Amino acid sequence: MLTISEGDITYFDDCVETFIHSALASKHFPDRKMIEGFLREAFSKKEVHLAFDEEKGFVGFICFDSNGMFSHFPYLAMIAVREDYRSMGMGTKLLQYFEDLGFSSAAKIFLTVSDFNVRAKKLYEKRDYKEIAFIPDLYRKGYSEYIMMKERPDPS
User: Fold this and answer.
1) How far, in Å, CA of 111 to CA of 64, rounded?
2) DSSP state for residue 82 in the 8-state scheme
3) Cα torsion at 51, 54, 55, 58 (round to 10°)?
């Protein structure tokens, strides 16, 4: 069983190690200091949420800002799952957690996904995120980002 809760800074090193081994880090965060800086800031803003398996312990995390898109809508900045837990549905469960929290306060939620992260983009599309913009060289020259949005499902 997976439980997700607001981040505890004592898991900072676990988050750094998980993030270092992600596709995003290899392209956008070329050194450990950048990763640590990003995560320190996210922890200080209480934007980190940690996932734990009852038997295995820490398995991953998400970072999101409840008002990060246009100062109004929830914005998912990152999902990171330990290498040994990938392809087991952990990322989907973390995404569902973000959606549940996001839709509790807003009708739309947002994220960006890099053009090289084809697998993640397919997951988001499967979960009804729609591409609304494409921005070349947003974070780093040579890497473009898709802005994706999902609307709260109609309850009917």
Assistant:
1) 9
2) -
3) 20
pLDDT, the chain, mean: 92
Question: What is the bridge-based pairing of β-strands 130-140 and 108-114?
Answer: unpaired
**Tokens 């890099």 label which residue?**
114
Record the tokens describing residue 70, joined without a space: 């246009």
Domain residue ranges in the chain:
2-151
Q: pLDDT per residue over 91-128, tens digit each?
A: 899 999 999 999 999 999 999 999 999 989 999 999 99
Which architecture characterizes domain 2-151 according to CATH?
Answer: 3-Layer(aba) Sandwich (3.40)
CB 74 within 8 A of CB 68: yes
Query: E strands, 7-117, where?
Result: 48-53, 57-69, 73-81, 108-114
End-to-end, the C-alpha distance of the chain in Å comes to 30
Q: Is 5 helix (H, G, I), strand (E, B) or coil?
A: strand
Distance CA 78, CA 114 (A): 11
